[in-house]
Amino acid sequence: MNEKTAKNVSKFLSLVLRHSPETIGLNLDENGWADIEELIVKCNNKETQNQMTAELLNYVVENNDKKRFAFNEDKTKIRASQGHSISVELNLEEAEPSEFLFHGTVEKFLESIQKEGLQKMDRQHVHLSKDKETATKVGNRRGIPQILTIKSGEMHKDGFKFYLSENNVWLTDEVPAKYIEF
After folding, report:
1. What is the Cα–Cα distance from 151 to 98, expressed in whole angstroms?
2. How confident is the model at residue 36 (pLDDT cuts 50, 70, 90)?
């Protein structure tokens, strides 16, 4: 499998499963699941460089370094693990985080974060990482990474809820600035 093809398919799946299923007229259920047969048919009805196949989907799900996508048990449905800007119910269970979690960003956002904390913006949750290495990878996508340390244990004690996605991304509704070490 060509890695460039896999990366392009991953980006396209992020678009249709996290943000804009209407791009191809795809139906997602309330939990964000899409029928694989429908996804393949609708992808192949669009003018794409690569024809979507079950084999290609399987490769992308199994080999995505961030495990962005998941199949249901019988592999008839697929969904994004987190990061949605559309309303879906992922049925995540509340979890207790470690004392510290991390968030990767870039310098241009630091002033705003210092004033307003971390906000979910157009997504359903703020995304946090369990380690600095992962947060660095996230921050690298937009430039020179700035790693923020989140006092997640203190937040949890103060009543903030945390969830752990299927691909081990920590999620919460917001992180007030007082819980952030810059």
Report:
1. 9
2. very high
Stretch (H or E) spanning 147: strand 145-150
DSSP-assigned beta bridge partners for residue 79: 70
Which distant-in-sequence residues (6+ apart) come within 8 Å of 80 by Cβ? 13, 14, 17, 18, 32, 68, 69
pTM of the model: 0.82
Per-residue model confidence as pLDDT tens digits over 55-85: 999 999 999 888 999 999 999 999 999 999 9
Quick one: CA torsion of 104, 108, 109, 115, rounded to 10 degrees?
130
Return all residues near 123 (Cβ < 8 A) that are at least 6 apart: 83, 84, 85
119 bridge partner residues: 174
Categorize the per-residue pLDDT at 38 as very low, low, confident or very high, splitting at 50, 70 and 90. Answer: very high
Question: How far apart (Å, rounded) are the C-alpha atoms in residues 85 and 106?
Answer: 21
Bridge partners (DSSP) listed for residue 107: none
Cβ pair 70, 12 in contact under 8 A: no
